[in-house]
Amino acid sequence: MADKRTIEVGLSTTGLDAQGRPQRIPLVLDNGGSNVAVAELPPLEPDFADEHMLINIGPQHPATHGVLRLVLELDGETVVRCIPHLGYLHCGFEKTGEYRQYNQIITYTDREDYLNSMGNNVAFALGAERLFGIEITERCKVLRVIAAELSRIISHLVWLGTTCIDIGAFTPFLWAFQERENVYNLFESWVGARLTTTATRVGGMAADLPTGWMDGLRNFIRTFPKTIEEVDKMLTRNGIWVGRTVGLGVMTAEEAVNYGLSGPMLRASGVAYDVRKDFPYLDYETYDFDVPVGSNGDVYDRFLVRMEELRQSVRILQQAADRLPEGPINIDDHRIILPPKSKTMSEMEVMIHHFKQVMEGPRPPIGESYVAVESPKGEKGYYMVSDGTAKPVRWRIRPPSFVNLSAIPKMVEGHLLSDVIAINASIDIVMGEIDR
Amino acid sequence: MTAPFQPTLPGHALSETATPTTPRNVPHQGGPANPSGAALQQQFGSAIVRVDVGWGETTVVVKREQLVEVVRWLKTADDQRYDYLSDVTAVEYRDAGRAIEVVWHLRSLPFRRFLRLKVMLEKGSDLSVPSVVSLYAGANWLERECWDMFGIRFEGHPDLRRILMWESFKEGFPLRKDFPLRGRFSRSEQLRQALSANPEARYSMEELSIADAFEDLPADMRTRIDSGVRTGE
After folding, report:
1. Which of A120, A250, A299, B142 would give a disulfide with A426, using CB separation of 3.0 to 4.6 Å?
2. Are strands B153-155 and B48-54 parallel, antiparallel or unpaired?
């Protein structure tokens, strides 16, 4: 944009003399001599036309979706430059994980992307299972698909509600959060927690479904599409909504891939990369669902993609509910997963395994694994390196919102200040995941 | 120049060749090898130190000097097309003598392949690797984070600053194994530093672009900036 950026400094002098000292305008003009020039007075109202202004948004700003701080350089109302600052929520999860057993790390995955805690639990367990070389049971696979899709729905609902608030619509926020409560009630009756679920274990799940839970799920599958349709009716063809979102923050397909964007951000640009389809896990290739793809890569397309993903998640949930097999949820290897209490108290060998597991934790063989899943934000990867002990040498989160956010300086450049809020909302960032 | 960009679409001619399946009975070692490993060995010969296959993932250890060449070839060659950089990170082992590994996770969206590249950096030597920001814009923040956490310098990075820790963080690199879990400084020292920071100094030098206009500033302001006194806005 602008080639030259300077800061105007009011010197109130006419300049510097040969020694570099500021020249002062004498109080009494020496009219007799000729060595002092009469200084031209500065204009009374300074001209701001070619000045840039710095605006600080955050870290405590309601529209930043957490403690994100953006420093914007504005030319009038147009953004010339955007400098994001991160790290206000940095807790060192990766460092702490090096001092924890694998099952203990699952609690950290709840807290890192806290809108998608179930999905993170599933992703971490899958990564650890590849490291351990475990094949999980069929029932566990379907339960994990249900968990992952339900948490995709709540994450998209939070995104929908907060984005509506950012752009100026309040009602869909209430609808979205009401449905979110229903999902949290399901989680609560399944694992006892709403937000920080810790639902999986390496080799299985923390708990099987309680009696009647599937009825609750089927009820949700039946009623939830109505809410989607209501929101759809309210927003998709709404003139204000369209006017506030179309043409903002455009990323072309090539740029989006080059920036490493993933999830709805990438698909809105027209690249049909979905980890569930391209690198499937949990038998996702056997489910019948579509990957919605946008064409313009703007905020409106990201909205459309996420709305369609909600519908597709319901489709997957329906299929999972229909195929859920009976059987055990945990693998039958008590060196890795905790045995049931009754067996622990009655069999000697099982008791020893129980003791070893609680005191030392299960040990994977030496190796490393990178397992990526399709989280609501994009490609979420867990990279684990084991040296054969019960604690990983390195546990790395590949945070999709971190990489997606790295494109924000490019996306907001040239847009108006108020559009920065809409573009920022469309990325669907969670600072817990970005700062970790 | 490379061929015009084609996003992967279902039904795309290239993606038909590799129908994805969930890996079953994950092998403890071995597994199907990524053909790019062998292709790299053929193309670059001695620049490829080793190709490992474990848990169905192929790891290629590359010499530091040829890294950018290798990555550029992987990105542009017609039968490779690794156009997506998933992750840049590093691994330090508990064994103090073992080299630090810098890890790149690459994906080929058209061919549905996954490849891990590694560069070994001996401890005590210069911890630097070439940057791949010129090839992948997404590497920008990932490399900054790796520098912030491990102190690995990415040569050629346009803006290698700390990203998660604050710019004046003086305790070192948190994810290194010699960094204690609770930090290098005592709690009282950490508190003292936090309190003594000037909360009014909200914009840093590079944000203000003062450096561009430094020579135009009056002398007293220049000395003030040189001596590190910040006045905020």
Report:
1. A299
2. unpaired
Residues 6+ apart with CB under 8 A from B214: B222, B225
Domain that holds residue B93: 27-169
Average per-residue pLDDT for chain A = 85
> What are the residue ranges of helices labelled H in A55-137?
93-97, 102-112, 117-132
Flag whether residue A78 sits within 8 Å of chain B, measured between CB atoms. Answer: no
Q: What is the ipTM of this complex?
A: 0.81
pTM above 0.90, yes or no: no
Give the separation between CA B16 and CA B111, rounded to whole angstroms.
9
Q: What's domain A93-400's superfamily in CATH?
A: Cytochrome-c3 Hydrogenase, chain B (1.10.645.10)
Task: Identify the CA nearest to A67 among candidates A52, A87, A50, A42.
Answer: A87
Tokens representing residue A214 in the block: 């599937």
Distance between A138 CA and the closest CA of chain B, angstroms: 12
- Residue B182 lies inside a defined structural domain of this protein: no
Q: What share of chain A is helix, strand, coil (3-state, %, to 5)?
A: 45, 10, 40
Put simply, the answer to whether A9 touches B218 (Cβ < 8 Å) is yes
Residues of chain B in contact with residue A369, where contact means CB-CB under 8 angstroms, are 55, 57
> How far away is chain A from the Cα of B46, in angstroms, using its nearest Cα?
25
